[in-house]
């Protein structure tokens, strides 16, 4: 053993090192490091330690010194090594961030990692790392639409008030139509899902016509009144209103939440409304379809029944929609509005201020 190297083990350290050597799940580098220290403590020479542990002389010396300096914990930790590649300077990161927020010089709508790496002269992984650190995602785009309705606040509070605190002895219905629902038949049958493979569906299809679903969501119990019709003019809308009139219990006031579609404001619809005094229309602000609760049902219908559906005719499509309505109504739940209208109003105002400052 070299001069100045003297290893004396306490009973706790020896027991811990022996546990590491005997542990079949321990990392091998930890096992032979512990073996070096145990053999050194037993007075075994360097050459014999090298033979038994299969390591070099410098390796034995290194871990003997590490144990004397840091104990058993030092054997279980690797010292960090400096990278062979010099780290990028702060100026490079600032330049990448500044360029990302500008339009690329070529005919492209946004920067890609490869484009930015070529422009700056760094690797793609470096660009991606800087983007992650600064929360930049140039490949993503979020769609938005701010309402320009001058009565936005009043209409918002009116509709949200119906959701949160509906009038007594009244029914609140969220009404809209989902138009142009296509009866799509696939050109080839798909394969079912199995382990290791997703279900398949051909990308091309055959159109077998379209239908329009008129729906009225009862906010109080979540049930939906639905009718399939070929078109979505004011004539069909009046027919749907008559269907609602027939299904809603007599003596109940009916508050109907609608969007600003032209058929909903047609003169003949207004005449119908005057003849049915228990009906009251509440229009959402313009460009605020998200405020209409029935849109959530349409999204559920599309995702769970229509998107992957195979329909060989309009009759098949309408029958499938009718069955989905029945299943929904059997397990319906009351609609619950949770968003704070004050926060919505503040967010819309911030959006308008941001747009005005930029444009």
UniProtKB/TrEMBL annotation:
Residues 173-317 form the Tc1-like transposase DDE domain. InterPro entries: Homeodomain-like_sf (IPR009057), MscS-like_channel (IPR052702), RNaseH-like_sf (IPR012337), RNaseH_sf (IPR036397), Tc1-like_DDE_dom (IPR038717), Transpos_IS630-like (IPR047655). Keywords: Plasmid. It holds the Pfam family DDE_3. The keyword Disulfide bond does not apply. One of its GO terms (molecular function) is nucleic acid binding. This is IS630 family transposase. It comes from Methylocystis rosea.
């Amino acid at each position: 053993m070299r001069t100045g190297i003297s290893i004396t083990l306490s009973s706790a350290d020896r027991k811990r090192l022996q546990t590491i050597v005997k542990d079949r799940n321990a990392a091998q580098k930890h096992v032979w490091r512990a073996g070096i220290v145990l053999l050194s403590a037993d007075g075994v020479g360097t050459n014999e330690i090298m033979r038994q542990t299969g390591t070099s002389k410098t390796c034995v010396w290194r871990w003997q010194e590490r144990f004397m300096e840091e104990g058993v914990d030092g054997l279980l930790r690797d010292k960090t090594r400096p990278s062979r590649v010099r780290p990028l300077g702060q100026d490079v990161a600032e330049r990448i961030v500044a360029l990302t927020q500008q339009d690329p010089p070529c005919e492209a709508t946004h920067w890609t990692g490869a484009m930015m790496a070529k422009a700056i002269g760094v690797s793609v992984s470096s660009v991606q790392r800087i983007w992650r650190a600064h929360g930049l995602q140039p490949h993503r785009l979020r769609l938005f639409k701010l309402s320009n309705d001058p009565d936005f606040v009043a209409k918002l509070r009116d509709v949200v008030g119906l959701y949160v605190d509906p009038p007594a002895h009244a029914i609140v219905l969220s009404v809209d139509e989902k138009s142009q629902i296509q009866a799509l038949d696939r050109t080839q049958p798909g394969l079912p899902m199995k382990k290791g493979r997703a279900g398949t569906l051909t990308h091309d299809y055959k159109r077998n016509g379209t239908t329009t679903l008129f729906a009225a969501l009862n906010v109080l119990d979540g049930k939906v009144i639905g009718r399939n019709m070929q078109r979505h003019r004011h004539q069909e809308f009046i027919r749907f209103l008559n269907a609602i009139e027939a299904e809603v219990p007599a003596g109940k006031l009916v508050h109907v939440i609608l969007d600003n579609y032209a058929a909903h404001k047609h003169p003949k619809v207004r005449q119908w409304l005057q003849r049915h005094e228990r009906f009251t229309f509440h229009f959402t602000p313009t460009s605020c379809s998200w405020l209409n609760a029935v849109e959530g049902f349409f999204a559920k219908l599309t995702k769970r029944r229509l998107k992957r559906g195979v329909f060989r005719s309009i009759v098949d499509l309408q029958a499938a929609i009718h069955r989905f309505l029945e299943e929904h109504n059997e397990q319906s739940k009351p609609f619950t509005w949770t968003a704070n209208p004050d926060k919505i109003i503040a967010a819309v105002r911030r959006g308008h201020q941001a747009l005005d400052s930029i444009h």
